[in-house]
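Shipment paperwork, digital attachment
Item: protein structure file
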Amino acid sequence: MNYIFHILTMINIYLILSLSLNILVGYSGLLSICHAAFYGIGAYISAILMTKLGINFFFALPIAIMGSMVLSLLVSIPSVRLKGDYFILTTFAFQIIVFDVLYNWVSLTKGPYGISGIPSPSFLGYLITGPVKYFFFSLIISILCFVFINIVLKAPFGQVLKAIREDETLAHALGKNVTKFKIQAFAVASALAAISGVLFAHYVTYIDPTSFTLDESIFLLSIVLIGGCGNIKGPIFGTFLLVIIPEILRFLGIPDTIAPNIRQIIYGLLLVIFMYFRPQGIAGEYKFE
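Attachment content:
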């Protein structure tokens, strides 16, 4: 039973990640491959604050969110004016920089050794630990994030992002500050990714840079593209499908030494198949080209 709740907890975490990335990819038309960087920034800020300074989880969480939003300016300001491959390369560079900082700033992040002993959250003296308790905690957080994202995307802000995605020149001609809206989209997406990072760090109680690599960013992008972008439903379908695949391989008895490679092959094949036969994904509205 604990195993099932563990899988459901990871689905909650990845739901927030995929829905937040969908704000950039599906609604803004920005193909970002640095989402795992913000995921890691949130995880590390919270872990450092709690292990080194003893700050309460519910104080560390907003600090991690704000930190991720501020750092998002480092990639959004120079990149949002760029198009196509140049934009992708900028987000790629940011992803590599963040990973290298996490890996090499040993005095702060403990480098490749990672941070262990990350405490579980507590609320009014009640410790939220173990797969069952943490599932319900992560479920509450993911529902709150889902409601927030739904409100934001149905508001004028979300409609402007769609307009920018469809015709940036027309949106600019109608008086919309395209650059400002893209920067705001990055800030919102990075804040939500940070929440996922905080949830992940305090669930597994140990983090290291290998959880927040370029491969992870591409995996998150695959969730959105396969599930479908441009609406709320697509990332939900994609999350359930791609998070459950490794567990299916586990039940098939595939050795752990080759399971990760097989998983990557399956993800790659799914991405190619969907891009060729159904570019809008399982339930998406927008065909990313």
